[in-house]
Amino acid sequence: MLLVSVPVMVALAVLLTNSASDSLTAAAEREGQTVAHAVTLRLEDWLSERRESLTVLAETAALAEVARRVADGDPDARFRPEGSKELVVLGESFNAMLDTGRRVAAQVKTAGVEVVRLTTQQQRSATAQVVETMEQLTDASRQVSATAQQIADAAGNLADLAGNLETTAATAAGGSGFR
């Protein structure tokens, strides 16, 4: 067994303690920097996620506002997407849907104008046919009326002629002695 004096052992213990303390302090400082760096990185990640979440919320609110404007009849409402690729694709799709809706509305309007034009044209044609038919009926009625008047006049003439013949026959029979 090694015999060492107490003062040497105390000195050795102090030396070891100081050396261990310095090593522990250096390790703690290095570890503290590593922990601080890790915390900083995680905080940056968290803030980035929150920023993306806020961007998504803001873009969703903007999209909802455009949809409200469209529902209120604003023909110029458009969504200007920003942010992630997904939001840009969503915005472009939304705008394409609006463009399709506008084209369909324009086609419906054009078709409506054409229907009104054709209906008006058809009504004019039908009215012209009715007027022509009424004129033909009026002419036919006048002709029937004139013919009826001619027949009535002829009947009156026949009645007069028959009366004259009767008178002449009676006169002729009375004056000739034929009885």
Automatic annotation (TrEMBL):
Annotated keywords: Membrane, Signal, Transmembrane, Transmembrane helix
One GO BP annotation of this record: signal transduction
Domain (HAMP) ranges: 54-106
Matching Pfam families: HAMP (PF00672)
Signal peptide start-end: 1-19
Superkingdom of the source species: Bacteria
SUPFAM superfamilies: Methyl-accepting chemotaxis protein (MCP) signaling domain
InterPro entries listed in its UniProt record: HAMP_dom (IPR003660)
GO cellular component: membrane
The protein's name: Methyl-accepting chemotaxis protein
Organism: Antribacter soli
